[in-house]
Amino acid sequence: MSLDSYIKKWLGPLHPAWKREAKQPRYRQEIFGEIRDEFEKSRNSLPRQVMFNLYPQNENIDIYTKRASLKASPSVVFLQFFSGEDATCECSGFIIESTNTYTIILTAASTSFETDDTKVIVHVSDGRSFDGQIEAYDLHYNIAAIKIQLDTLLPTASLAYLDDSITIDPSHNVKEESFQLRPHSSSFNIIPGDLVIALGRFIRHPYFQGHSIMAAPGLFSISRCLHDCKELFTASCRITSCGIGGPLINRFGGVIGICLHDDISTAFLPINIASIWWEHYKKYGKTRRPWLGMGVTNLYAAPIEILERIIQKFPDVLKGVIVEEVVPGSSAEAAGIKYNDVIIQFGGKRIECVLE
């Protein structure tokens, strides 16, 4: 069976990739607070260790999923967090940086990280375990960096920075833009319906020793996550609580995001945001988040009647972002930005998609 046939038969009916429900605008702090609450319920509930094959779509995965998963699996780890003798959290993560003195792992954050006595144990792919420490965390993005003091190199993930721009040019065939990652490339153009795979790691004790990799294939979707959070993207992968914090990869094994939890699907933070967050922390020792007071989405996600009017008035505007919300009293409102405005340039830089 070809990859396209597999997607249509098994993954396509599970999640309408181009369906995007309209929701009322909401303020960021309210949204992220609810997301954190859901993540805590999922990740801290017992029993924690449930494998991905709890869901039928994750059984008997195809060779394409296996190849991509095996390429990325050496960097995937299992994490255990303790407060005293009590386990507070168990999840997955992935290695993004490794030197002769330390290794850095990205995962999802937890409110339990705010306690001073949190202990971390990192289980890597070859079965070894190491003590780790929480280097940094951000409950806004629900992201954390874990450090291992280690004098040997560990396998690191290959990051594929997302490019989610799609032209609205009527003469252009969308399918031509799918899967535009070249070997050794650092960017990946993704469109709704593309195959993605959520990975996690799992300790299968007490049956036998070892740390098993788990894979959950699905499709990238234009739909917002359950809590309407603009920073998070959505895929139809079904994961369990121990997969939270693990990588979401493309069909080439490149990491495109950090998996979070959204009940019936998998919300994920794009690796673009996570990488910038970490680099900013390394440079400044803290994180800062810009706030412009507006919500935007990709131009191609706008209703067709709006796109028609845009093409009629501005035939050369084929990529960009469209304004969905302007917060009263914000800098965006002061600058004259209005609902349904299309932004194609910002600060002298061409803008083609939300992630830019």
Describe the structure.
The structure is a single chain. The protein is α+β, with helices and mostly antiparallel strands. Helix content is 18%, strand content 31%. The strands form five sheets. Strands 1-2-3-6-5-4 form a six-stranded antiparallel beta barrel. Strand 5 and strand 6 form a beta hairpin. It starts with a helix and ends in a 6-residue tail after the last strand.
Question: What's the structural blueprint in terms of helices and strands?
Answer:
Blueprint: H1 3-11, H2 28-44, H3 63-72, E1 76-83, E2 86-98, E3 102-107, E4 118-123, E5 129-138, E6 143-149, E7 161-163, E8 187-189, E9 195-203, E10 211-221, E11 233-235, E12 247-250, E13 255-259, E14 266-270, H4 271-284, E15 294-298, H5 304-313, E16 321-326, H6 331-334, E17 342-343, E18 345-346, E19 349-350
